[in-house]
Structure formats: structure tokens, C-alpha cells
Amino acid sequence: MSQHDNSPAHQAFLTVSAALTGYNSAELQGTGCTGEYWHQFRQVLPEEILNRFLSHAQSLGQGDDDQIIRQTYLSDRCLGPIARSLIQLWYTGQWVPLSQEWRESYGASRFDVVKIISTRSYKEGLVWDAIGAHPMGAKQQGFGAWALEPPRKREAGQ
Fold first, then answer.
1. Which of 69, 115, 125, 141 is the most exposed place for a label (fewest CB within 10 A)?
2. What is the DSSP letter of 137?
3. Which residues lie closer than 8 Å to 63 by C-beta, 6 or more apart?
4. What was the pLDDT predicted at 140?
5. 30/14 Cα distance (integer angstroms)
6. How sure is the predictor about 60, in pLDDT bands with cuts at 50, 70 and 90?
7. pLDDT, tens digit, 9 for 90 and up, residues 5-32
8. What separation in angstroms does the CA of 104 have from each of 80, 98, 101, 114, 126?
């Protein structure tokens, strides 16, 4: 999964992921997990729905992204659950399956099961950065970290 993908679909995936997570594309790529997540995403979604999900990427970054995310993704019966699973994937490194109702309406994939994508995905989950912590048992703070003040709260877009 370390191959760099410059396809328009992968770039759209990063654009939508950035808008959904509040991290920019460079930060998401810095996790080293984009290839694994993109692979998982494509395995789970039917091609037609994948294309529909990614088709709105071009409107992001040209206006009020929060409004676009709310109206186009989160409030949509089909795209909303996908967007929520993608957010959880980036933050926790774990794929959360789509609901049974969604599967019955749009199709099921044998890859749509709960799973930690990789040991790296656990370590690089955005949740650790968002809460100013480190993944226990996987990435230590460093000697003397207990003597430092906790990091300041990160604001969206910083």
C-alpha cells in the first residue's frame, strides 16, 4: 500500500477526507495510511456509489465547505453513513461497517466488516493528535514528557 496514487479519484478521496476530518491533505498523507484507507474504501463501496461520493469533491474548497459537508454528505441517506465511517476510519484507524439498512438498500460487500486496518493505522489515528495524547503501547511520549505542560487544544484548520 505504499505506492503513491495520483489518480483523480484518489485526489478526490483526499479532498473529501480533508473536509470531513478538518485536517489538510498533506497532514492526511503524512499519516502514511492514505493508500490503505483508499483501498479499504474502494473495496467496501459499489463503484456507482463511490463515484457519487467522490463527485462532490470538486465543489469543496470553493465556498463554505462546512455547509457542503452537511448538505451533500452528512444529511444524505446514502452518503451520510459512508462519510461517518470515513471520519471514524481517519480518527481511529478502524473501519466501522455500514448499517444493515444501508447494506440492504445499496449493496453489501464482504469487506464491510469491523477491523483495524493495520498497526500503523492505530498509531496514526487522528484522535491522538486531536486530544493531544499518544497511542498507548505503540508510540511513547519520550523521556521527561511528564514534566511538560499538556499541549494546547488544536483548533479546526490549524
1. 141
2. T
3. none
4. 79
5. 12
6. very high
7. 889 999 999 999 999 999 999 999 999 9
8. 15, 10, 5, 17, 31
